[in-house]
């Protein structure tokens, strides 16, 4: 089995919400992927007025609203974490860069779409 070809073999990760219908497909040429929740959020980072669900006038849903603990996800495409400290993994050519050397090129595509309640039809939002 050869290297993963992200242009032919599909997304490395898909995240979707049955509630909102929003779907995110992530494509990349990177060999690692990291997902974690926002455990450090403490309710002080405000949402933009265009974010979140607006309430019917009650105080709980008025702005400014904030991101609660565990209220977001971080999705990172990357090479092996700590590969630079584990030479046996042979990640050096992807993790060591110096002046005059080759530039690091990371390719990734984040495709957002809306899924319909019934069936598999999707409306593309961006490419």
Write the layout of secondary structure elements.
Layout (H helix, E strand, L loop, with lengths): L12 E4 L5 E7 L3 E6 L35 E6 L13 H4 L12 E8 L6 E3 L3
Antiparallel strand pairs: 1-2, 2-5, 3-4, 5-6
Describe it:
- The chain has 127 residues and is mostly beta strands.
- Among the domains are: 1-30 and 105-126, no CATH class; 38-72, no CATH class.
- The protein has one helix and six strands, in the order ββββαββ.
- It has one helix spanning 92-95, and strands at 13-16, 22-28, 32-37, 73-78, 108-115, 122-124.
- A four-stranded antiparallel sheet has the order 1-2-5-6, with no helix packed on it. Strands 3-4 form a two-stranded antiparallel ribbon.
- The longest helix has 4 residues, at 92-95.
- The model has no long low-confidence stretch (mean pLDDT 79).
């Amino acid at each position: 089995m050869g290297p993963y070809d992200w242009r032919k073999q599909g997304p490395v990760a898909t995240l979707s919400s049955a509630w909102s219908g929003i779907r995110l497909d992530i494509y990349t040429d990177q060999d690692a992927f990291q997902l974690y929740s926002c455990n450090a959020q403490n309710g002080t980072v405000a949402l933009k007025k265009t974010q979140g669900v607006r309430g019917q006038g009650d105080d709980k849903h008025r702005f400014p609203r904030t991101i609660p603990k565990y209220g977001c996800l971080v999705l990172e495409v990357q090479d092996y974490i700590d590969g630079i400290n584990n030479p046996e993994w042979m990640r050096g050519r992807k993790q060591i860069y110096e002046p005059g050397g080759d530039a690091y090129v990371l390719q990734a595509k984040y495709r957002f779409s809306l899924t319909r309640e019934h069936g598999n039809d999707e409306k593309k939002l961006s490419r």
